[in-house]
Amino acid sequence: RCFHFCKLPGRVMGIRLLRFTSVVIIVLLLVAGALTALLPTIKDDKLPNLRREPKTQSQSALDSFTLIMQTYNRTDLLLKLLNHYQAIPHLHKVIVVWNNIGEKTPEEMWNSLGPHPVPVVFKVQTVNRMRNRLQNFPDLETKAVLMMDDDTLVSAHDLAFAFSVWQQFPEHIVGFVPRKHISTPSGVYSYGSFELQNPGFGNGDQYSMVLIGAAFFHSGYLEDFQQQPEAVYALIDETQNCDDIAMNFLVAKHTGKPSGVFVKPVDMRNLEKDTNSGYSGMWHRAEHLLQRSYCVNKLVNIYDGMPLKYSNIMISQFGFPNYANHKNKM
Amino acid sequence: RCFHFCKLPGRVMGIRLLRFTSVVIIVLLLVAGALTALLPTIKDDKLPNLRREPKTQSQSALDSFTLIMQTYNRTDLLLKLLNHYQAIPHLHKVIVVWNNIGEKTPEEMWNSLGPHPVPVVFKVQTVNRMRNRLQNFPDLETKAVLMMDDDTLVSAHDLAFAFSVWQQFPEHIVGFVPRKHISTPSGVYSYGSFELQNPGFGNGDQYSMVLIGAAFFHSGYLEDFQQQPEAVYALIDETQNCDDIAMNFLVAKHTGKPSGVFVKPVDMRNLEKDTNSGYSGMWHRAEHLLQRSYCVNKLVNIYDGMPLKYSNIMISQFGFPNYANHKNKM
Hints:
The structure is a homodimer. Chain A has helices at residues 11-38, 75-85, 107-112, 156-168, 220-225, 230-239, 243-255, 288-302; strands at residues 65-71, 91-98, 120-124, 144-148, 152-154, 173-175, 178-183, 189-192, 209-210, 214-218, 260-263, 268-270, 313-317. Chain A is of the alpha/beta class. The relative contact order of chain A is 0.12. At the A-B interface, helix 4, strand 12 and strand 13 of A face helix 4, strand 12 and strand 13 of B. Chains A, B: It is a single-pass type II membrane protein.
């Protein structure tokens, strides 16, 4: 018996109305269902105007790195290099340290030529200082920093490999340019490369620094750099040089081990000659190398000791570019 | 007053006797003293028949290594190689694992051609087993083992460098012969070298094993090897092969990292062809490589998983033999 239903006003009319309503509803549902089946299936390639979420932004802070590139008077090289570096695997963001005081950054032009694979931030500086690139930038979100000079092109293959090496040696400066200091009987140190005599630990050469103008290192070292004695900043400002030597001292002191791990580059190029600016870089100054020896000795005074340690480990990528590059004479 | 003395029989004669005795004694002492002054000063080079205390025996257990070399049917090569290896820097002792069952060791001849830079111990075996070299020899005093096949010559320079690398990576097998496994869609693994396809992690090749026939590793792993499942020993005995693959599995499981670190040799030679015995080594057997693939899969079953990990790190010595061997294109 239908007690509830049947209590509708107008018992006979109620039932008929109910049946009619039910039928209408069912018919409407069927029609709607049929219409749904006719809708086109939504596929990714049918949404061309929506930007794909950039993969790099979902990379964790451990699996990606931030490129910090300081630039002075070589904007043409900077832009060439940015086109190259913006597409390096595992790159999270680029920070351009703009040392062209009073000059507009190319940010407008950069934006007009978007979209770009990663964000690029232009940090306008107030004074043209070599150590501007060693600030503890709030924009830094990754554990790893890749620091490049604005005239140096390193291939993506080299960078991808060196980044993987850094991940295995995160407390070291992992890079492509090895240098060394040597001590002399007088106790005065000298700075140089392979043209200097070997430090004399067995055969072969040794390096005690890896320059930061083409290297990966832990972003924590930028924090540490802010805690150094004033004399270090004064030295770097006085010479407009040696920030990289100071960083190697810092890292060596921190780890008690050789500061750097040298990765032999397959394809690294200096683009200095390619600039229209006529500006060819600090290392061409006559006093450049003498300054660096001077810096080594000053830093030993400031830190009251020589923390740099030697290494002769040279790392290359197994089976690249030549798949039999490890073959021996056997 | 002289009470005790004077109680000697014959009082007057006693005193005269005493004085005379004293004078004689004093004169004798003076003469002896004079004779001592005339003795020649003892210098090292005046004692040609006394062996200098070998420097290696005063080396601490951390700064030296023990060479373990197993030998079968190639005593001529063994003796050639012993002459070379006995003089390697930082070598503490040599252990020769004598697999020539029932045959006398060359110990007598060895001793007759002494002195030698380091002690050499001949361990006579009762059964000719490949895994004899993986015993936990009580003669082992060093933390590091250098294991060499009895047909492999590696230069002193390479060994000295690789030993210094091992000291920086003591939990790894640091050696000169990289190999890899690859997995296939069927889940079956295959063993090989660079002729096999890359495992597909980025560009270049990868290795997942470093063979122990030319490598440094921690002596603790010989202890660990004694604790492995019986099935591992059975596998090695069945194939007379794969002890090195088993060691790589052991090390990878222990560290959770790639088992080996590959050091690219400058001068490594296979002396197989130089033997008079006509015996040319196990790896020439037709089934050798197939056995090794078989072993990889068996070990995965035994250990219930694949512990081997890939690496593409290739280490060379900075500035050796060519002092500019790190130069880049800049």
